[in-house]
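Hi R.,

Here's the chain you asked about this morning:
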Amino acid sequence: MSYLRFDKTLLTNLEQSQQREMLRTNKSGAYHCTTVIGCNTRKYHGLLITPVKNLDNDNHVLLSSLDETVIQHGAAFNLGIHKYDGEYYAPQGHKYQREFNFEIVPSEVYRVGGVVISKEKVFVSYENRILIKYTLLDAHSETILQFKPFLAFRNVNALCVENNNINTAFEEVENGIAMCLYPGYPQLFMQFNKPVKFVSDPSWNKGIEYPKELERGYYHKEDLFVPGHFELPIKKGESVIFSAGVSKADCPKLAEICFNEISTRTTRTSFFNCLKNSAQQLFCRKSPEELYLLAGYPWFKCQARDMFISLPGVSLAIDDKPAFQKIMASMIPAIRNFMNGKPLERDVVGMEKPDVLLWVIWDIQEYAKATSDEEAWDLYGDILKDIIEFILKQKHNNLFIHDNALLYSYGWDNANTWMDGMFNGQPVTPRSGYIVEINALWYNALRFVAELSMKFGEEHFSETLTKYANKLQENFSPTFWNGYYLYDFVSEHHKELSVRPNMILAASLKYSPLENKQKKAIVDIATKELFTPKGLRSLSPKSSNYRGSCEGNEDTRLFSKHQGAAWPWLLGPYIEAYLSVYKTSGFYFAERALAGIEEEMFIGCIGTLCEMYDGNPPYKGQGGISFAMNIAEILRTIKLLKNQKND
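And the predicted structure, written out as tokens:
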């Protein structure tokens, strides 16, 4: 039995099946996303969604869906499904679906009378092309397949309406057609691996609804253009492959391409393998030499902070050292450009955030742990020294080192930490002054680079950093410790008493400025007030500002995001700190802490982790359907527990 398999009992239950989504990417920014029954419930869903650089920096839905119809003895059975106003679904192809299997690629089985047909979807790596392989497993008489494409050609953040600006012309190409509905878009090539008949019958399919957009307070209806349908016969045991891409397909080779792509997939037969596969889906190759990491899907870009928090988990934790090296090699020029006041010349945002460079140092520290100090210093010693000197010389525009060796960052007007929600131009969770995790990362960075510098002959530099680290350690607790836990931030006229998870980093990092009893107090209050089966809450429920549900319109969600939502990525530093305090006696608890995360493999976007979860039971998933920081830190935690068990 597959780890990720759903039978007809769930699939025919629309209340259940519409809540389960699936995601495939080409590892270059394009993706396919829908529900397990193929009913699009978001404007971000579609069969082929790809960046269109000619227009903007966003993704665009080219092919929304493809309805398949089985014809026998003149009777037609449509396997597609769309939602319309008033809970009306037409057609209702989910009634014929018998199985959805996500072990290797999305695979479905349909039964229509005596006809049994399988469907496998394969996104071609590094190419804007999706393949769908149909195999007629059983049939007792002549069978014909029809395919009706629903075209959008729109930005993922917009919706289509019937209009007269559309170009309905099509070009006949090998085994199919090509169309381009609007200027600026690439042609969409829809082809098969065998000759096919195309019947032109242009029309608009009006009023398709996306209930997830309605839930989020957005307009949720769309009109899609249908140019006609493809038609071909199929025999028992035969396979037919459909290709949709922005370039012509080599039709005779589609079967070979499909086979080769499937053979390279990580099978999702375990919790770890699901997350490993999800991590690989987030890679974004801009060229053979440049590799980045997207912050998530469906609406996230390449964001510096998210990338560097996630990097060890999506590479080192899955034993993919080359991916770590390639991403760092792609990003170091951008880091240097930022420090030199030059354009980044990389498709990444947020490099200026005050904690980003400190996360880079943490990445290299994790690399040294996974390889050796010698290798880390040889590859990254120069950038380590340059980052430290950049900060010490006060060159960062929002990171200032004071006489007490603490770092100060202004955040009353801009969201300067990972709690980055903005409303009406102001941060929802303002954090300004001495920010606890920034200074914990700073202390860890000073000690780490000082240690490596001493080890590899940079004694003077090491001594300078050690002086700063000693002074910082002297002032850290007097600044942040309130007798029970750490203030979240300290400014000129304010000490933030709210119990938040950011302090856990001060207890989890290899070099901590805290005493053991302080670490224990932090772990204990985090366990008591912040821990949930889905991660640490962003705010204690005891706070008057706590919001335990992230549902509602955009404003409501913004105010909940960091005021109570639970974040799985925080389990990484939390479990690290927990084991640091409780040693082997805490191992069982740490393993059990991941049980609630594994449940999410079968809920929401299956096989991955979404952006955040409600802080209140039943801890429903919210936000983006696949989120890099969560995937990465759970992978890193699994690796940590495995290593400790083997020691």
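The mean pLDDT is 95.

Let me know if you need anything else.
M.
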